[in-house]
Amino acid sequence: MVPFPMLHTESSAERLLYEAFMEQLDDEYVIFHSVDWALAGRNGRLEQGEADFVVIHPVDGLLVIEAKGGELTYDPQTRRWTQGGRSGRHALDEDPFHQARDEMHSLMRILEARAGWSRWRPSFGYSVAMPHAIYGRDAHPGAPAAVVIDRDDLDHLQARVREVMRTWRHEGRRFGESGMLAVEQALGAAVEVRTPLKLLFREEDRTIVELTDEQAWTKAFVLNRTRAVVTGPPGSGKTLLATSIARTLAEAGRPTLLTCFNVRLAAHLRASVDGVENLHVAHFHELCADLAREAGLDVPAPTGSDDRTYYEERLPELLERAARTLGPRYGAIVVDEAQDFRAWWWPALLALHREPDRGLLYLFSDDSQVLYEGGELPLDPTDVLPPLPHNLRNTRAIAEFVSVFFEAGSRAGIAKGPAGRDVEVLDYDGEDGLVRTLEVVLKNLIDSEGLALDDIVVLTPPGREKSLLWRRRAIGPYVLSDVVEDGTVLWSTVHGFKGLERPVVILAELGDRHREDVGRYLRVGSSRARNHLIVLATRSVAADIRRRAPHVADPGLA
To answer: What is the pLDDT of residues 310-335, one digit of tens each?
Structure first.
């Protein structure tokens, strides 16, 4: 499909056809959507025209398609067509069959003027697509049903397109590669040619460094203090600094705890310091349960009815009791995403410290990413360092998009990454529309852009019980999984992916029930994307996002 994503259109008929072409037509077909031209044709005369779709095939040639939505009616007395839709009925300015025919002839006059025309002269024709209507017989001699694509054809669209193109077929003519290239060149003024994302990512990643001179200075400064709170916006390198500092302390022989709230983040931290002696990595609730068992305490399983009480109060109480039994064991504690810790958790955690009041304690925090109503940090204001100023993780396009959703008083980092591709905000209607849109997006990223499945993560605000996508799990040929495994696309909640990143994030299921929190989810979820971000939202929420962030791509795919 050219272009991808779909250009914004108010036509539901064009959106429906675009998705169906994308899903059903194989790679021999090239489909151009919403193209226009103003080029020299025969005798040097300027040819101007436009078409909803142009389909080209190396053997069957070229087909110009005019798409019309709603119910169409032809009056033989007035020879006029009327179109019915949500806003009532209205007369069409032009017969859609004549319109498609004239568009076809205009485009052919341009192609006839190109070198090599006699060598690759194609079969060519036109069609009228009526995806909302049934067209069973000719309305008049110039409106043959044989060239119509209607609602009954949508489930077998490739067969119908082939049938219509072969209606116009002239034996002995073969478009071939050179003819198809000529069409692409002729329409090139209206087509955005893009380098596949996989290749772009390689170039972008060369400019996104892991530890800048600025961060190296911050690390040295922190390690010369007994206690510090390191703050900064998403993408400023806090997790990298936390890991590097914990590693340095442990390698110096000091028993060190590196902890966080998030289960997935803890797994990432553990993998990044694998094999480092004297370093214990665990997410907070894992730490509570493990040490309680070590102390011989009974650790009940959550019942589901009181999960919040269980995690917020019961497990921290068990940790405090375990610390009294086991005694202090760490000479340094490093906490990532510290803004998510409740105020009453800190005494239990610090009970594990050999010097809880003045020993080495380093907290990494971002108040713009609070999702759990975290409490105050257990350090003095004098221990809070100036915020890290730069966003080093994201492309500038993503960083600028995220910055729009920061609350008053919060600071987005200055973007220092590569320019990157525009953020895409795609809208959909209903659960089926969401699933269909996600399938089209995944197909394009993997088949057209050359990305691997593990380059992508799908994030949703709701968890397992309420997520529409998690309930479906199978998205066309793609399968969602909440663990990293071959052949699947990783799925997670927004809060479950905090502190982590992927080259591509698809932030989905932003619906009306999330309207009050949409800024928070966009701020936290969008910043997980390193190279490219795609947002899937219901139509009204997508419109709100575009109003707030006007420089995003507005393809109107769903």
So the answer is: 999 999 999 999 999 999 999 999 99
